[in-house]
Amino acid sequence: EKAGFEHFMIKEIHEQPKAVADTLNSVLHDGMIDLNDVGLSEEEIRNISQIYIVACGSAYHVGMAAQYVLEDLARIPVRVELASEFRYRKPLLDKNGLAIIISQSGETADSLAALREAKAKGVRTLGIVNVIGSSIAREADNVFYTLAGPEISVATTKAYSTQLIASYLLAIQFAKVREEITQEQYDGMIAELQTLPEKIQKIIDDKERLQWFASKQVNAKDIFFIGRGIDYAISMEGSLKMKEISYIHSEAYAAGELKHGTISLIEDGTLVIGCLTQPNLYEKTVSNMVECKSRGAYLMGLTTYGNYNIEDTADFVTYIPKTDPHFATSLAVVPLQLMGYYASVAKGLDVDKPRNLAKSVTVE
Ligand code: M6R
């Protein structure tokens, strides 16, 4: 059932190009996004005053990336919240808001409770869900099904990637309906989305170099992932992957926050991974990397082909193909998944079933 792969996780990493393409194709008809099955009308889209994205774990990290994309393209204010916080903080919600609940399993207890909280307050709910007929899918007013197929590994990979795609499609469609983008921009973004599967494949094809690098990190005490904007969201997911399966402590930090405390943890040889996919923030994050280096850090850069001057700063560099910066998370996450995976393999750990964790967290 692992189809020749050593673990479900690496099998599922390899399934990402197909999962992404399937999710795209499920709503793209003749080059246009069709949300008929999701059930949101143009009028409903025009009336959304505010978006609340609520989720746990990696799905929350999708929400963080989606916040930047939705606000930037559709110009709708977005809040992203952890379901376990949202459900108990008596949130003040706007009746014309839209609550988007992201969940692979559709059974996460806190996410389900957050959905019920939003519904009880009269707010429309939209689930981005992978498991058909799951509780969140049944209870949400609208459902956008991701087509990742069954995900077995506790560490999510392909479901995460399809959740990102669903959120881009919503953002582009909302932007179009609300006349925030031109037809040309719309067509360009859809064409770009369709190149993502082959770009993801290209990153997977280069996995040996990352395997080599990740295997060298098995004795690391701490790893820091830093970035700004969408790159901060990517850092969060990279850090969780590393912790969850390799048991190496890591932190994701908004690069500009480092000097407000955390930089004191940087010692000789501490690995700092700078995520640099956003052109407007590139120089800013590079200077934070330089600050870490001058305190002894060992630097890895994760950036786009073409940004070769990163080699003046970073000790090890991984390049990803160019794409629209709104969609960079879909590419940048893949090397980070591979690093977590290979670090876990090198430590001889139970990759697919890490200690203390369950695939679906049905108790709070
Ligand atoms: O099924 P869900 O998407 O609601 O699960 C949410 C989290 O429990 C999940 O993403 C978790 O963080 C993953 N194990 C991370 O790889």
Provide tags for this entry.
binds 5-amino-5-deoxy-1-O-phosphono-D-mannitol; 14 helices; 12 strands; five-stranded parallel sheet; 364 residues; alpha/beta
Topology:
Elements: H1 8-14, H2 16-27, E1 28-29, E2 32-33, H3 42-46, E3 51-55, H4 57-74, E4 78-82, H5 83-86, E5 98-103, H6 109-120, E6 124-129, H7 135-139, E7 142-145, H8 158-177, H9 183-193, H10 196-205, H11 207-215, E8 222-227, H12 230-246, E9 249-254, E10 271-276, H13 282-293, E11 298-304, E12 316-320, H14 328-346
Parallel strand pairs: 3-4, 3-5, 5-6, 6-7, 8-9, 8-10, 10-11, 11-12
Antiparallel strand pairs: 1-2
Bound molecules: 5-amino-5-deoxy-1-O-phosphono-D-mannitol.
Major sheet description: 5 strands, parallel
Uncertain stretches of 5 or more adjacent residues: none
Counted by DSSP, the helix tally is 14
The main sheet orders its strands as 4-3-5-6-7
Percentage of residues assigned to helices: 40-55%
* Main structural class: alpha/beta
Helix-strand sequence: HHEEHEHEHEHEHEHHHHEHEEHEEH
> Quaternary arrangement of the chains shown?
single chain
**Please, what is the average pLDDT?**
97
Q: How far do the termini sit from each other?
A: 31 Å
Instruction: Give the C-alpha Rg.
Output: 20 Å
Main location: cytoplasm
Protein name: Glutamine--fructose-6-phosphate aminotransferase [isomerizing]
EC number: 2.6.1.16
Function: Catalyzes the first step in hexosamine metabolism, converting fructose-6P into glucosamine-6P using glutamine as a nitrogen source.
Brief digest:
With 364 residues, the protein is α/β, with parallel strands linked by helices. It is 44% helix and 16% strand. The mean pLDDT is 97.
